[in-house]
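User: Structure tokens for both sequences below?

Assistant:
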Amino acid sequence: MASSAREKKSKLILDVAIKLFTSKGYMATTMDEVAKTANISKGLTYFYFKNKEDLYMAVTKKAFDELKGVFRDIFKQKGRTGLQMLTDLASGYITFTKANRMYNEAILNFMGIMQLYNNELTRNQIHHLILESEHFQKLLDIQHDCGRIGIQMVSHGVKDGSIRPELQPEVTFYTIWAMIIGYERLTGPVGFDEKEIKIHLDNWKPGFIKLMQDMLKGTIQAQKPQVVQASLF
């Protein structure tokens, strides 16, 4: 089978899997259903992807590639300060997660897998078919690609003066990324009962962005309480 034909078949299976994982969820989707929906024989489907775990790792790699594109496009913009890049990244990341729920869940799932993988005592909790997937091995190589671009954004901001010079780029970026992931996760609880916690989603996002900017610029300063002199009588 020609290389181009192989790539088309592989892409078709991957696209169908993404649609099914998005609409039905990973657990409820079967390889048989993927093959049937793609109008490809079950045997040929297994030729391209050894099992559902392998297929999901392939989808996860595509998710990381798509997210890397968001990072790369922002970093390539000319005439932007590092602070402006990170501001755009925060908004771009949130937009990405809303438009690509399945990709976002796959990325977060992989981050959870890595927590187990990094500890020899918990690595055996990962399904062996995931560890055997060639796409999982590729993910190990590319997982920090987005981080590398984000670190460059912080370094650029330190150089152009838009970000505090004492900040360490690696620690700073991964802290910002953790904040953005946390924001995305909490939009559900916040949106469920805004009256209870007195936060509205419409004003939380700009408030979140401003706080992030203030942290990076160093404009957040603790104020000493004023001493008030008063007579007891």
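Moving on to the next sequence.
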Amino acid sequence: MVVLNKIYTRTGDKGTTALGNGDRVAKHDARVAAYGTTDELNSVLGVARLHSEGEMDAALARIQNDLFDLGADLCRPDMAKDAAAEYPPLRVVASQVLRLETEIDAMNVQLEPLRSFILPGGSALAAQLHVCRTVARRAERLSVELSQVEDINADAVTYLNRLSDWFFVAARVANDNGQSDVLWIPGANR
């Protein structure tokens, strides 16, 4: 259980922060950028939830919890030491990715196939889900970049990849099952 009695610690005043294993790194470290962007995504998702209800809101709440799991995963290096750890770090697992895929498939059944690219917009929820989609893509890019220099959990990257797809399909659902999607008209303003 996490207990936060004091919010400021002053330990980061000189531009460093602690990772999940206690190591201190620069606040601009690639790992910090990856999990920091995941935290940003969670915050943006909180704004999207202001416009959601019912099953959609329940799904978004599950994803917010998963994003905390993902942040915990990304802030903890030393993948090789996981098996020997007294308290193994929390890692995103394949079943979380599978749940996203199952939900994408279930949502997609309701939608007509796309015959055009769509512009971010439509309903307030759809617009916010498109913001979530683009932040998820940035978190994915930063995680892939991190994976080029350090070992990270491959399921974490896969989760982010699938999550951006989830947000895209959910945005279409939020747009009256695609009926209110804003279609791109190539060259319309030439």
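User: Anything stand out in the second?

Assistant: The beta strands are 16-18, 24-26, 118-119, 182-183.
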